[in-house]
Amino acid sequence: xxxxxxxxxxxxxxxxxxxxxxxxxxxxxxxxxxxxxxxxxxxxxxxxxxxxxxxxxxxxxxxxxxxxxxxxxxxxxxxxxxxxxxxxxxxxxxxxxxxxxxxxxxxxxxxxxxxxxxxxxxxxxxxxxxxxxxxxxxxxxxxxxxxxxxxxxxxxxxxxxxxxxxxxxxxxxxxxxxxxxxxxxxxxxxxxxxxxxxxxxxxxxxxxxxxxxxxxxxxxxxxxxxxxxxxxxxxxxxxxxxxxxxxxxxxxxxxxxxxxxx
Length: 262
Ligand SMILES: Nc1ncnc2c1ncn2[C@@H]1O[C@H](COP(=O)(O)OP(=O)(O)OP(=O)(O)O)[C@@H](O)[C@H]1O
Description:
Helix content is 38%, strand content 23%. By secondary structure, it is an alpha/beta fold.
């Protein structure tokens, strides 16, 4: 579990995160959503230590990131997997080489052990047999799978995904969402996903954190969202006619109404 307590971050005197508190739960897909410029990326970067907030706490299972020594941060990094926008694979390395990379960097595994683990991860993401291919030889969806295999190679406790569906077609996006959701549950990972994709929000949003103008304005899951009364949230999520229709249908057909805080 990652707990963020009252964090604040400013740039050039402008407060971008204005006292954000949130809990990212273990074994769940935790989604950060919000309009462009609302502060999602700054929050995500704060979580992984790329940005240092001026105030607040970021607790990794009780360990305060902002009070960690260099060594402690280095250790924490071995517990974190990251999935960047655009996959960020090494073009000159094979698929297998890409997945082996973190194992080479952060473990003392032998060559044979690395191979075995990398092959296991590739098989887990449905890419058995693609070992020798280069990133340029495979589709965007497959590249994303390789990036997921690489992100889980070290068996992370925490997985951060920045816009995992960007550039993918809707069907492939759903498959990637399902894969992320499955590995989150299977390995009990605290997964944090920064997304604009409303299909993802409604499909895999187990713990949705809505950021609006630097405030955390709503928390809930994808069943609660249909009956949420926060106007900024509903304007954002159900902005299109299609999603408004989905909402109307779900409300008319009795979605579960569970307690939530706004
Ligand atoms: N390094 C920086 N220096 C100055 N301002 C920044 C910096 N990083 C972010 N900001 C500002 O902070 C605000 C929030 O940016 P952020 O990137 O978190 O938005 P976002 O919600 O992720 O948007 P998007 O969905 O478009 O990626 C924006 O006004 C942005 O200009």
